[in-house]
Write a structure and sequence with these properties.
The protein is an alpha/beta fold. The chain has eight helices and seven strands. It is globular and about 45 Å long. The protein binds zinc ion (ZN).
Length: 283
Amino acid sequence: MMTGRRLGVIAMVACALLLAVALGGQVVVKRTTTSRVPSTPTGHGSPEPSRPPVRAARPAARPSGSAKPATPGRRSPTRPPAAVPSLRTMTGTSAVALTFDDGPTWIWTREMLAVLRQHGVKATFCVIGTMARTYPGRIRQIAADGHTLCNHSDDHDYQLGTRSEAEIRANLQATNDAIRAAVPDARISYFRHPGGAWTPLAVKVAADLGMTSLHWDVDPHDFDRPGPTVIRDYVMSHTRPGSVVLLHDGGGDRSETIEACRQMLPALKDRFQLIPLPPRRSP
Ligand SMILES: [Zn+2]
C-alpha cells in the first residue's frame, strides 16, 4: 500500500510530465510558424544544417520520425492560392524549367551544379539571402554556369507575405543585395515566396522590385525525402510542356534529389527542352 508521501511524489512527476508535453507541443507549433534558416557554414562532407521540415500549408506538429509522409505519387501537385493573381506557374512556352529552392548550400548546391553541368542542363536557383551571404562562392558558381537566380526571401519566413509592405520590401531587397554582393551584375527577375505562401501584397512588392512571382506546377515533395526513384517517377509522370518543377538544393540532406536528377535528366532532356527561366529587367 502506498504512503501518502509516495503518492505525492507520483503526482508531482505526473504534473511535470504533463507540463513537459504541453511545452513540447508549443515548441513544435512554434517551429512551424517561424523562419529558421541554417546560417553556419559546414565543413566539407559534414551534414548540412536543416531548417524545420515544414511548409506553410502543412499541418503542424507531426513529430519527426513518426508517421511517414504520403508519397508524392498520391498527391496532386501543389496549386497556388486562387485568390493571389499574377503568379507564374508555367514557363509560358513548351520548354520546361527545373527550379531548386533553399540554397545555396555547401555540399548539395555544388553536387547539383555538377550534375546539371554533366548533362548540359540550365536551371533556376531560388536562393535565400542568409544562405547567399554564407556561401557567396556558390552564388558565383550558379551564375557562372549560366543558371538563373531567383529571390527566395532573406530568411525563409513563411509569414513574410502577411507582414507590412515595408518589411516585405526590405526583406526582398536584402536578398537581392546578398546575391549582388556575390555577383554584382546579377539579374534577379523572379521571386518565390517561402513555402508558396503567397499573398497579393508579396506579389505586388516583388513586382515593384521588378520580379515576377514564380510558383510551380510540379512538386514531387523531394523535401520529404521519399526516395530518389519516387522523386524521379513523379517528375517524369507529371511534367508536361511548360512545366515549372519544384526541387530543392538546400534545407537538409538533398542527396535523394541529386540522385533523382542524375537518373531523370537524360529522359527529361529527350522529352523536353530544359531552360533556365529567362532573366529580364533588373529590379
Ligand atoms: Zn523554400
